[in-house]
Amino acid sequence: SGVPGLLQELFEGLCAMGEGVVLDLRGRGGSTGEVAKIVDVLKTQRKTRRLPLVALVDRQSRSAKEVLADILKTDGVATLVGERTAGAVVGATFADVGHGCVLMFPVVKVVPYTDRIETKGVEPDVAVQRAGPYSGGADPILDAGLAEAVRLSGGPFIDLAWRAEPSQKTSPLTGVAATGWRVATRKEREP
After folding, report:
1. Are 87 and 58 in contact (CB under 8 A)?
2. Which whole-number Å values give the CA distances from 166 to 20, 61, 71, 139, 179, in the listed order?
3. Is the pTM of this model over 0.70?
4. How many other CB atoms are found less than 10 A from the CB of residue 95?
5. Which of 55, 144, 160, 162 could form a disulfide with 78 if both were Cys (CB 3.0 to 4.6 A apart)?
């Protein structure tokens, strides 16, 4: 169940049609307790189906997403595309200190990742700077990730969990709803 179960279902269904996978790890969040299960699913699929895997990261990728990115890169499971990650791995909790203020403080060290990643981040294999505030919805990290997936696979790819800014309703590249799943062929991507 959870994300590992969802990934497994996707690989058995929708992803069976593709020849490469793009996984979006940009932004905050995640549970480090799920990382090992996610890695197992991705490694199994990589071995059995030999699918190239590209993971998108940016300066806001942190916590479990950052640990996942580090493992995927270190173990050679995925090519990371985007910006260096945040370098924020230490587990934290929150305490109400009154007057509408909350204190966030570290509570757990995520061994061995805290020592390796905290304040340093994870460097991408393909460095791409994210778009600025006046980019008109452009997503150069996504574009570079899709291009890398095409380069690695030479065929159709799967764009998993494409995310748009809240003001966007669909991907400018694929026309897919921001929360949707999509399989696109090389022919669909050519101008």
Report:
1. no
2. 27, 17, 29, 13, 11
3. yes
4. 10
5. 55
